[in-house]
Amino acid sequence: MAASLNIVVVEDHDALREVTVEALRGMGYGVQGVDCAEALSDELKSLSVDLMVIDLNLPGEDGISLAQCVRAVQPEVGIIMVTSRGQVNDKLLGYESGADIYLTKPTSVEELGAAVKALARRLKSGIQHDFVLDSTTLLLQGPDHSVNLSSKEAMIICAFARALEHRLAYWQLMELSKSDSISKSTLEVQIVRLRKKLLQAGTPNQPIKAIRNEGYQLCIDIAVI
Fold first, then answer.
1. What CATH code would you report for 6-125?
2. What is the per-residue pLDDT across 170-180, written as a single tens digit (0 to 9) for each?
3. Rounded CA gap, 8 and 20, in Å?
4. Which residues bind DNA (predicted)?
């Protein structure tokens, strides 16, 4: 099970963006793809982003300018630049603009995945999380208390942790049960029980909130190991 990591891929080539997004999702990450820097301009402050994969040759604002903006708004975010610009001066400019890793196209899915994994380890090593779910023991560790989760509860937490903005629709949560018979009322009971366990671990009030006619949102950050 991959540790929780939310990634944004900024690539204007539609086919390449789709392949990259699907490949990273297949590795267990939460991934969103956009085709230009402007698509993120109003969201950078609200998105829960751990890492960005940025193409430099973007329409409008280019990848260098975007990386500088990201560093100013969210300095802790990991940045991987993927570009056809392979000259030494280009790489130096990329690193000076905020890149953690600079990859030259053509880049294989395997190489990008290895870069993401390596950068994720570095990001995790410098971050302390108040709440950590051990996916093997199913133990949720809080700052003062730890609670045991059922396998289904742990699965729900993992799905929330990986989802963009920690939001899941009703149908996504129902799919996790692997049962066609589950109803919204049954799902609500599961969420109520999970809320109680999260509160026992020391989370603030309303750790999971309902989104009207849509689903639920996890309102805290939980690291999954």
1. 3.40.50.2300
2. 888 877 766 55
3. 10
4. 120-220
Residues of the chain with CATH 1.10.10.10: 132-224
Q: How many C-beta neighbours within 10 Å does residue 77 have?
A: 20
Q: Is the dihedral of CA 210, 216, 222, 225 positive or negative?
A: positive
What torsion, rounded to 10 degrees, do the Cα atoms 162, 167, 169, 175 define? 20
What sign does the CA torsion over 126, 99, 11, 27 have? negative
Give the position of tokens 């190991």: 225
146-148/139-141 β-pairing: antiparallel
pLDDT digits (tens, 9 = 90+) for 56-76: 988 888 899 999 888 877 777
Do residues 29 and 14 touch, judged by C-beta distance below 8 A? no
- Tokens 């989802």, residue? 163
The structure's pTM equals 0.55
